[in-house]
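Preliminary data (for renewal application), adenosine monophosphate complex.
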Amino acid sequence: MCGSFFIQENWDTMENKRVYGIDLGTTYSVISYVNDNGEPEIITNSDNDRLTPSVVFFDDPDENGAPCIVVGRVAKESGVISPGRTFAFIKQQMGTDWTCEIDGIQLNPQKISSYILKRLVDDAKRCWDLDVEDVVITCPACFDTVQRQAIIDAGKIAGLNVLQLLDESVAAAMHYGLNKEVGEAKTAIVYDLGGGTFDVSVVSISDGVTVICSDGDHQLGGRDWDQRIVEYCASRLAEACGTDMDTVLKDSEISYDLQLKAEVMKQILSSRDVARAKIAYDETSEKIELTRKAFDEMTRDLLERTAVCTQKMIDFAASKGITRINDFLLVGGSTRMPQVMEMIKEKFASQVDNEPWMLEVDEAVAKGAAIAGLIVNKRIDYISSEFEAAKVDGLTVE
Ligand code: AMP
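Predicted structure:
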């Protein structure tokens, strides 16, 4: 259930503009704001979806040569036909010097991300008449200064005024703090497994959110789980066609199609024991079946990497005197995989007081960012997060 909270009495007459919260995700992006009842609300896009795929597709230019840039669900589907003109998972390139040119447009990760931001903002205007200008954007806690700057730049290119960059774990904890109506201070682990990044933080939640420590891997996410299914399907196709897996995957169209189908199969396996897909390749069409048991087995090492990282943070927090962890919060779409909850219960139940808590896994970060937007705007009295710089094994945790 969504919590609401105290808003200053002169809310309607205040001249401050509304500040929106944006979760610029590796696979999906979400925009939210706090409505006049004080509840964080997701702004649906023009496809009527709450989540917008973070995918940009360059369709053929129009007759005057003007570029035709498509963002979201249609872009994701178009990638099958034109994988070379489709850009996904760009957040993983943030802060790198990756560049590309399409139809005379110089592209870098900031520019591509700006198209995603622009789609969210334009839809908010078109569908809901909301003027989005001032924003809080979230980023993984493990992002360094260069990566953070790249996100701010993406916001600027999109014409936004980025008032704050907020760690995704802090945003989720802020939303959680309100949801649970926490009276006394609590400590929690925020385990955030999204589409392309993994973050784990130990936070203290009281009047505000303080990060005790945080670590992660911004090259680990749902995409890696998908990739295992892609390889499984490709090897089955290779067997059927008497070729090898690399040859199958070299075909960029089949490779992209396999990625889309793998993601769907993975999601099916979150609620069913078996997933099936029909995949056409060469002259054949192969029916492929994958059980949850086999999927869990083929991705065990990925899950284990998140467990190792989590234990490291619990141990580090203990070394700083945080010996009691009250809650374990799961955030990010990939935590819907049952293997995640099973692993957490098995490895961490004895180290955490309460049952693991699955928040609104796709929306908590954007909603937390919207709440942070109120604070930035000084509309509510809620202490914002602080960072405690700390060092773990030579790794800067800040
Ligand atoms: P996020 O970055 O938090 O939006 O998470 C996106 C990731 O969550 C993608 O890899 C999705 O495939 C994955 N995801 C979404 N729903 C499910 C589901 N039901 N089961 C497994 N993974 C999911």
